[in-house]
């Protein structure tokens, strides 16, 4: 009996070895097993991402949607989004971001400059990714900014080259003499763009005049003054301007003063042309950065600010026709 039991044990052992060898020799089966284990590992993690969006308008909405879509494609339902909108109020941004910090979310996405500033003020530990932010050095008061914020901050920029935007004014309005720059004085990135555009326009022979408004209470009056003084108005990527685009459009139409806008959403409401980025794709870039941070694949403190590589010239056909402006063939009509 003992001898027979020993033989059975040996046979069972050899069978087990053969089975293990067969599995090991099948590269596909082994790789699939590893992939399943990795997928289960990622699926087993749960992340909470807080989203603070300054205000609801087309550009910021697109960036938020692109961000969420890119993360969901990579991590599925492992991520819970806490999406909140500040309705254009910087103080509400601070309240939202302080709540995210108190809840110890895994990552904060700050959509627009005031949201980024609030997020950075709320935590120095939780990773913060900005998007729809024009210039991080100006937004965060970083001297000699080299493209890396350091600490717990990085993100994407919505800046299209300002020299090309100035050239657009020259190309479409070659007989213009005075160009007004209409912007919100409360947005650091708008102030930055105003300062750069003044130099770029002057280099092209224009007289540049700046007109700042504080909020919706004075935007129509300031816009009217700009129309009275100027041949063309340039509006940078400015969230308060976008939020008040209908009021700006009403004044400029009545005065027959054309607008070059800093982004597509603003141009669709009140501008003739724009050099714009794709905010949805910018959001997707931000989302892919978030995935790397959440999975520990990259250190946010060393991540470069990312820029949209190929801005596109677009035009608003209704206003181009209204002002009888001839649009070059390399412009794309805003749909």
CATH architecture call of the largest domain: 3-Layer(aba) Sandwich
Strand content of the residues, in percent? 15-25%
CATH class category label of the largest domain: Alpha Beta
Strand line-up in the sheet with most strands = 7-6-8-9-10-12-13
Please indicate the count of domains: 2
CATH topology of the largest domain: Rossmann fold
Decide which structural class fits the backbone. Answer: alpha/beta
Instruction: State the shape.
Output: elongated
Question: Helical stretch count?
Answer: 14
Distance between the termini: 87 Å
How many β-strands, per DSSP? 13
Poorly predicted runs of 5 or more residues:
1-41
Order of helices and strands: HHEHEHEHEHEHEHEHEHHEHEHEEHE
Mean pLDDT: 88
CATH homology superfamily of the largest domain: Response regulator
Characterize the main sheet.
Answer: 7 strands, mixed
Please give the radius of gyration in angstroms.
Answer: 27 Å
In helices, the fraction of residues equals: 40-55%
Characterise this structure.
This protein has about 325 residues and is an alpha/beta fold. It folds into two domains: about 140 residues, Rossmann fold, CATH 3.40.50.2300; about 140 residues, 3-Layer(aba) Sandwich (Rossmann fold). It has a seven-stranded mixed β-sheet with strand order 7-6-8-9-10-12-13, sandwiched between helices. Strands 2-1-3-4-5-11 form a six-stranded parallel β-sheet, with helices on both faces. Strand 6, helix 8 and strand 7 form a beta-alpha-beta unit. The radius of gyration is 27 Å and the shape is elongated. The N terminus is likely disordered.
